[in-house]
Each structure stands twice: as C-alpha cells, then as structure tokens.
Design goal:
Layout: E1 4-11, E2 14-20, H1 27-31, H2 35-43, E3 46-48, E4 57-64, E5 69-74, H3 79-92, E6 97-100, H4 105-111, E7 143-148, E8 154-159, H5 172-179, E9 192-197, E10 202-207, E11 226-229, H6 235-238, H7 253-261, H8 271-279, H9 305-323
Parallel strand pairs: 1-4, 5-6, 7-9, 10-11
Antiparallel strand pairs: 1-2, 2-3, 4-5, 7-8, 9-10
C-alpha cells in the first residue's frame, strides 16, 4: 500500500538515495519551487541504501547539482497537467537541464553510470500475441495509433493501451489496427501516440508518461525497425493525422491555476488511519501484516517564503501567457 517515491541527490561527486512511502503523487509539487527547495525536501526523507524497482516506484527524482541536471517522473494527471508542470519547471530551474525520465528508474541509474537494468528482472518487458486491437468501453483513449498505408495516406485510431503497450505485440499489431473499424474522434488529448510506417519500417512514439524500456530498442520482434522517440512532443504525429481525426487543443490555463491553488497544501497524514488498521485483528484472529514505513507520513520541508514568491510569480507569468493564446 502506498505511492512510493525515490529520490537521488548528487552533490560534490557523491550521491545519496532517499525514500518516501506516500510521496509519488507529490514529486512534481515538491520540485516546483526549484532546486534548493527540492533538495531540502528530499533530504528530509529517510536515507536508504537500495533501489526500488519499476513495479513499486511510482515517482522519482534525481537532482544532480554537479551537472545541473534534473530527471524526474510521476503521473501528474492528463496531458495539460504534464505540460503545465514542465512549463513551471522551465522557469523555476533556470540553467538546469530538466528532463522527464521516460525510462523510469532506468534513466536515473543510467545517469549515474549504473546501466538501465539495475532495477529490472531479466525479460521484464512483457510481450503478447495480438488477437485484436483494443478499443473497448473507455470514454477516452489512452493513446493514438496512426499508420501510413501503402497508398501514402494516413489513418488513425484511438487505443485503450498505454503508448508503449502498442509495441508489445510486435509488428503483427499493425494489420489488426488497419483491419479495425474507425474509432470516435478524440475529445481530449491522449497520454501518448504511436505512428507506424511499414514501408519505411519506422516507429515514432511520444508520451507524457513513462514508457519504460523505450531505450532498449529494438524491443522484442522489432528487429530491423527504426525508432523515432519524440519524448513528450506530440507535434510530429499531429502533423500526420488525417483532417477528420485531429488532436484536441485543450487550454493550459486550468492546469496552471490548479498548480497555483495547490501551493502550500500539506500532504495527507495517513499515519493515524493506518495505525488503527494495523492494531485491529485480521480475519479469524490473524494479525495483519503492515509495512512499517507505511506508518510514516510524507513530511516535506516547506519552501522558503522567497522560493514560494518566485514560484507564484512564475505561475502568474505562465497563466497570463496562456490566457492570451
């Protein structure tokens, strides 16, 4: 239970790891006030000597003061929420190379020179035999799949799969996509997209969430195909989509205002609730097993007043710009 987060702070040639059981959904919020505030916040957590893995780690950040690099990942909401966070970080981390860690913990361990497989078991990337293309009961698509057909035209479909899951079935999924019926036009931006060009044997992918394994190309069954990984930039696929299947253009103002409204909001204290649950008897007198770290709430170090002032100024600037477009 919990939304586990891992932090790494690099400074003066050394690095330390820290852990919070509840903070994965606060990684972005703790980064917004800038490098000094984020570093204090992360160092206020428990130092550990091990790595989480990609299953249990739902958010992470690496703050490298020596090279002025920030790597981070967390699920912050939809497309607009992700872009709003990225826009704020660009202002509050001036002079830093700020990157979303699409490969999850693999990006963090790679940055430290430890490779990308340290937190993953062998053959961890799950593949399957595709039997159909996934558009089912969901109101909104998780991703968009587009295909360049032999006549040069492009068709597109909404997909219930996450962006990288569209690759787990290998190239065989392309025929299933092309044979599937049209899907409804998008009403909201998806979390990513994949474009297949069978004639050129290229795959283009973008996402505003982690796509773990994307740097291990070729993924299984994609040998002799070229990957064009676009990070979180959707514009290349947007330019390929047919006129009757465009990406929506949701405004960023609500997402930016939500960030501004959340400033200073403390994390929920789950400790007392879990302590009561742990004290109760389980079924037939059994004793429930509770991870001790689950009873320790996330208590970030508060940003200094000057840091909050700069953050509010950055948000005001971005909101004003968004309202003029």
């Amino acid at each position: 239970m919990g939304a586990r987060a891992q932090y790494v702070v690099v400074e003066n040639g050394t690095w330390q790891r820290y852990y919070s059981h509840w903070a994965a959904n606060r990684v972005a919020a703790d980064l917004l006030p800038g490098p000094a505030a984020a570093t204090r916040c992360f160092r206020a957590n428990r130092e550990i000597d091990q790595w989480l893995d990609d299953v249990w780690c739902e958010g992470a950040a690496l703050v490298d003061h020596d090279r002025r690099v920030l790597l981070w990942f967390a699920h912050v909401g939809d497309w607009a929420d992700h872009l709003a966070v990225r826009a704020v970080l660009a202002l509050t981390w001036p002079g830093w190379d700020v990157r979303f860690a699409h490969d999850g913990l693999g990006d963090l361990t790679h940055h430290l020179g430890l490779g990308r497989d340290l937190t993953r078991s062998p053959c961890w990337f799950e593949i399957f035999e595709p039997v159909g293309f996934p558009y089912t009961e969901y109101a909104e698509s998780s991703s968009v799949v587009s295909v360049r057909l032999p006549d040069g035209s492009v068709r597109a479909w909404g997909s219930d799969w996450e962006p990288v899951e569209n690759l787990a079935g290998g190239p065989g999924v392309i025929d299933l996509v092309v044979a599937s019926p049209p899907t409804p036009a998008l009403t909201d931006m998806p979390e990513g997209g994949v474009h297949f060009d069978p004639q050129a044997r290229t795959v283009s992918l973008w996402a505003v969430r982690t796509v773990a394994g994307i740097h291990d190309w070729p993924l299984p069954r994609w040998e002799n195909w070229t990957l064009d990984f676009r990070g979180d930039d959707h514009t290349q696929q947007a330019g390929l989509l047919p006129a009757d299947f465009p990406f929506p253009r949701p405004p960023l103002t609500p997402a930016l205002r939500s960030l501004a409204d959340g400033l200073g909001t403390p994390p929920p204290d789950n400790g007392p609730l879990l302590a009561r649950v742990a004290a109760e008897s389980g079924p037939d007198g059994t004793t429930p097993a509770v991870n001790p770290t689950a009873l320790v709430p996330h208590e970030p170090a508060d940003p200094a007043p000057a840091e909050l002032t700069l953050l509010r100024r950055a948000l005001d600037t971005l909101i004003a710009e968004a309202e003029t477009h």
